[in-house]
TrEMBL record:
<keyword id="KW-0812">Transmembrane</keyword>
<dbReference type="GO" id="GO:0030313">
    <property type="term" value="C:cell envelope"/>
</dbReference>
<dbReference type="GO" id="GO:0015833">
    <property type="term" value="P:peptide transport"/>
</dbReference>
<dbReference type="Pfam" id="PF00496">
    <property type="entry name" value="SBP_bac_5"/>
</dbReference>
<keyword id="KW-0732">Signal</keyword>
<keyword id="KW-0813">Transport</keyword>
<dbReference type="InterPro" id="IPR000914">
    <property type="entry name" value="SBP_5_dom"/>
</dbReference>
<protein>
    <submittedName>
        <fullName>Putative ABC transporter substrate binding protein</fullName>
    </submittedName>
</protein>
<feature type="transmembrane region" description="Helical">
    <location>
        <begin position="572"/>
        <end position="592"/>
    </location>
</feature>
<dbReference type="GO" id="GO:1904680">
    <property type="term" value="F:peptide transmembrane transporter activity"/>
</dbReference>
<dbReference type="InterPro" id="IPR039424">
    <property type="entry name" value="SBP_5"/>
</dbReference>
<keyword id="KW-0472">Membrane</keyword>
<dbReference type="GO" id="GO:0043190">
    <property type="term" value="C:ATP-binding cassette (ABC) transporter complex"/>
</dbReference>
<feature type="domain" description="Solute-binding protein family 5">
    <location>
        <begin position="82"/>
        <end position="451"/>
    </location>
</feature>
<dbReference type="InterPro" id="IPR030678">
    <property type="entry name" value="Peptide/Ni-bd"/>
</dbReference>
<comment type="similarity">
    <text>Belongs to the bacterial solute-binding protein 5 family.</text>
</comment>
<dbReference type="GO" id="GO:0042597">
    <property type="term" value="C:periplasmic space"/>
</dbReference>
Length: 601
């Protein structure tokens, strides 16, 4: 997902304040309205807003999952469609019409009834106001119209048959609140929120705190804890120490060193789960707007697929994963992780290329790049020198770069490591001013969104890189044709075959090199809380889910005397993948949504 200049300026300003104060505290403590202890979560993250129409960062979009229910939820078991606001649904006219029936007795957190009018209002705003489609507009591109024949029925008429459930992944907002907002696209939605999820936001102060209180009207039942509080720490080691000391109750996105160090810590339980995220190298294939205008300063050599494939075959991903994350993950094939196995490109796919430096050299030979002085290749008087943009505050980036440079030199590529901060990585990747950079996304159970951000129509609108959400700047009309075909394939087996064919096409084109699917390393104070929910239920994760199951089922631990604190401390919030930004000598962590860069969700 793209960073706008406004968001970047805000991030820098907020980061500077955070760095001056270390672990940031606020003034006083706010008590939860609901009974029960507060689960305190260590994190470091940036919030653009809590506006479900426009928020583009992973941190707030994951919190929005706890605040607003969708028509259809992703199940805890495997992420498949299950009840949300809708009790049941059916397709008609061969998938050209979806009819949803809402549950009885639904209420917003302010006790107002939830009706079909709220659903229609949400979808209509996204369909008619471009700015309100910034977050999830790709999901409604096939909507023709939305009808509400009564308070409990929602009819979505599609432009063409649609297989993915159109009721999933779009947070439904209360019409009676949002229709009174003068400029909804600019509304931060950061206090006294009216929601329908298990928790609702009550208080937020940038880089200091986000407090969420249990929603007594949540249709699955009021949570067993009083609320969530996300507390800000400027580095992950400080988060780990806070967990040991009992100052927080939960920490996630741990490094392997931190995770191993907590294995035998008193009153701490560690958890390792299958992530819905991938880690990759994005390659600048020649950035263009959706109307074909080039932008950025990527090396033209990378527009040759032979060069991109040579880079792929020059990287020993297995060795890299072992050395960088101690093997705590699974080797990647493509951008749909094994966590959602039926869509994943199988490990035995015929298109997969093995680590083979000699084959990489042959591809470069065929592309006309001959070996010159120092073993570096040249063509038409130019050396094959590429820039790898890395975030110097992110250990996974810096460690990986150490291995990539000699591997690239071995096949004749001069790899220049450009270490900078997260703001610069973000700005340069948006503007197309890079050759390669490390990235990653958190994907959804249904692949439609992730596939969609690889289509030509999702590229930038303008030559500054803004106005679009493209995974890697990739564009292939045949891929677009297959995207439309998979969306309309009502037979699941047929759709799976098309989705895998699309991944094979993208893999062969190599606009990115997916390296691995990292395990999610988490830890919590088991003397205070237990019964966290996993998604998927078999070997899944607690935080950063495609749902709200992680903290919904959490309860005070037996014998804990009520669990954690009964009031909110001060600090910031949320549990997600982070990017470190080195500013003024300290580190503050930003989160790109990229769905999930995530990715990124």
């Amino acid at each position: 997902m793209q960073f706008g200049s406004r968001a970047l300026r805000s991030a820098v300003a907020i980061s500077a304040v955070a760095l001056l104060t270390g672990s940031v505290g606020g003034v006083g403590a706010a008590r939860a309205d609901s009974s029960g202890p507060i689960l305190r979560i260590a994190t470091a993250g940036f919030v653009d807003s809590f506006n479900p129409f426009t928020s583009i960062y992973l941190l707030p979009t994951n919190s929005i999952r706890y605040m607003y229910e969708s028509l259809v939820q992703n199940s805890q078991e495997d992420g498949s469609p299950t009840k949300g606001l809708a009790d049941h649904w059916e397709t008609k006219q061969g998938g050209r019409q979806w009819v949803f029936t809402l549950q009885d007795g639904l209420k917003w957190s302010d006790d107002q009834p939830i009706t079909s009018a709220d659903v229609k209002y949400t979808y209509d705003q996204m369909m008619t106001v471009p700015e309100l489609g910034e977050a999830n507009g790709n999901l409604i591109t096939n909507f023709a119209s939305v009808e509400t024949p009564d308070d409990k029925t929602v009819v979505i008429n599609m432009k063409s048959p649609q297989a993915p459930n159109p009721g999933a992944e779009i947070p439904i907002v209360p019409k009676h609140v949002w229709e009174k907002i003068k400029n909804p696209a600019d509304y931060p939605n950061d206090k006294n929120l009216v929601g329908s999820g298990p928790f609702v936001l009550t208080d937020y102060k940038a880089s200091q705190r986000i407090n969420l209180t249990a929603n007594k009207n949540f249709w699955r039942g009021e949570p067993k804890i009083g609320g969530l509080q996300y507390i800000y720490y400027t580095n992950s080691d400080a988060q780990v120490q806070a967990l040991r000391a009992g100052d927080v109750d939960f920490a996630t996105q741990l490094s392997t060193t931190q995770f191993d160090a907590l294995q035998n810590a008193q009153n701490v339980t560690t958890h390792e789960g299958h992530n819905r995220r991938y880690f990759s190298i994005s390659i600048n294939v020649g950035m263009e707007t959706r109307d074909g205008k080039p932008f950025g300063n990527g090396n033209p050599a990378l527009q040759d697929v032979n060069v991109r494939q040579a880079i792929r075959q020059g990287i020993d991903s297995k060795s890299l994963m072992q050395n960088v994350i101690d093997g705590k993950g699974e080797l990647a094939t493509s951008f749909l992780p094994k966590a959602f196995d039926k869509w994943h490109l199988p490990d035995d796919s015929s298109v997969l290329m093995k680590y083979d430096p000699e084959a990489a050299k042959r591809k470069l030979d065929a592309a006309g790049w001959t070996v010159g002085p120092g073993g570096i290749r040249h063509k038409d008087g130019k050396r094959l020198s590429l820039r790898l943009l890395i975030d110097s505050g992110e250990a996974q980036n810096t460690k990986s770069a150490e291995y990539l440079r000699p591997w690239m030199k071995a096949i004749g590529i001069d790899l220049q490591i450009k270490a900078t901060d997260a703001d610069t990585v973000s700005a340069d990747s948006i503007a197309g001013n890079y050759d390669m950079y490390f990235t990653g996304w958190s994907t959804n159970p249904d692949p439609d969104y992730q596939l969609g951000i690889n289509t030509c129509g999702n590229r930038a609108l303008t030559t500054d890189g803004n106005g679009g959400t493209s995974q890697d700047g990739y564009c292939d009309p045949e891929f677009d044709r297959l995207f439309a075909a998979q969306r309309s394939a009502m037979d699941e087996k047929q759709r799976i075959d098309i989705v895998r064919q699309m991944q094979e096409m993208n893999y062969t084109a190599t606009p990115q090199i997916a390296l691995w699917y990292p395990d999610m390393l988490e830890a919590y104070r088991s003397d205070r809380f237990d019964d966290f929910g996993l998604q998927p239920s078999d070997g899944g994760i607690i935080a950063n889910q495609a749902g709200y199951w992680g903290f919904l089922s959490a309860r005070p631990a037996s014998g804990s005397g009520g669990g954690g604190s009964s009031s909110y401390n001060t600090g910031v919030i949320l549990v997600v993948a982070v990017f470190a930004a080195a500013i003024g000598g300290g580190a503050v962590y930003l989160v790109m949504r990229r769905r999930d860069l995530d990715t990124t969700e």
